[in-house]
Amino acid sequence: MNTINKPYIFVIGNEKGGAGKTTCSMHLIIALLYQNYSVVSIDTDSRQSSLTNYLKNRDLYNKQNPDKTVLVPKHFHISESEVEEQAKSFEQVLKNNQDADYIVIDTPGSHTPLSRVAHSYADTIITPINDSFLDLDVIAKVDSKDEIISPSIYSQMIWEQKMERASRDRISIDWVILRNRLSNLDALNKRRVGNVLAKLTKRINFKLAEGFSERVIYRELFLQGLTLLDLKTAKYDRAFNSSHVLARQELRNLLDFLGIKVAFKG
């Protein structure tokens, strides 16, 4: 990623819930903190507030474990209010934090005016999708023969925000599709999804990255406010197993793809 702009802004977006946006956001935030960057996080999901809740769990962990504290970002939650007020609050947060190295923005799993505004400020948009045709519908409409009919409403929205960003700031937006793995999807369907995504990279202009597999560990870590990067140094009572090792390698691969070098603890 071209990270010359400061602050560099990552927007994690997908108008479908349950795709792993908050898991992606949190691990990206903590990876950047471990590199000694100053990081601001913004939760634009005023209702579900998953990233805010994750960070509240992290704050609670630090209070309960003062001898093994973990890093936290400077966090803002855009509360529910009138559309114009939300946009003003969001843009004020951006304006007040121009000295940050990175800003990571988590967006809701639905279309909202604030989400559109947030996307228009991105340097890189990361869209996690699950490895299924149901989730692929967020990116494009596909027929029964796996032929692309048209870009989806979300893809069109991203194109519009790319135009807005270029017009306002003379900056182009990178778009990364993060392909997460569903354990219950058979090999044939995985290949079909992969083939369609390969076609879409050329038509819709995004980069394709390998994401996370479906693992229980992510749900466990959420409850403690921890990430894979914190294990071995934080107080984590569960024994390491092969799933932990594979999950850490998946995260390392994603961070390498984004140009973020992080040494895992332990």
CATH class: Alpha Beta
What is the mean predicted local confidence, pLDDT? 88
- The portion of residues forming beta strands comes to 15-25%
Q: Helices and strands, in N-to-C order?
A: EHEHEHEHEHEEHEHEHH
How is the quaternary structure best described? single chain
Helix content: 40-55%
Report the end-to-end length measured between terminal Cα atoms: 27 Å
Number of helices: 9
> Which structural class should the secondary elements be placed in?
alpha/beta
Query: How many strands in all?
Result: 9
Contiguous uncertain segments of 5+ residues = none
Strand order of the largest sheet: 3-2-4-1-5-8-9
What's the Cα radius of gyration? 18 Å
CATH superfamily: P-loop containing nucleotide triphosphate hydrolases
Give the name of the CATH architecture: 3-Layer(aba) Sandwich
CATH topology: Rossmann fold
- Give the total of domains: 1
What best-fitting shape do the alpha-carbon axes yield?
globular
Largest sheet: 7 strands, parallel
Question: What keywords describe this structure?
Answer:
9 helices, 266 residues, 7-stranded parallel sheet, 43% helix, 9 strands, two-stranded antiparallel ribbon, Rossmann fold, alpha/beta
Structure commentary:
- The protein is α/β, with parallel strands linked by helices.
- The chain has one domain (8-257): P-loop containing nucleotide triphosphate hydrolases (Rossmann fold).
- It has nine helices and nine strands.
- The protein has helices spanning 21-34, 50-64, 83-96, 113-119, 133-136, 153-169, 187-205, 216-224, 242-257; strands at residues 8-12, 39-43, 74-77, 102-106, 124-130, 140-142, 148-151, 174-181, 207-213.
- The strands form two sheets. Strands 3-2-4-1-5-8-9 form a seven-stranded parallel β-sheet, sandwiched between helices. A two-stranded antiparallel sheet has the order 6-7.
- β6 and β7 (148-151) form a beta hairpin.
- The chain is globular.
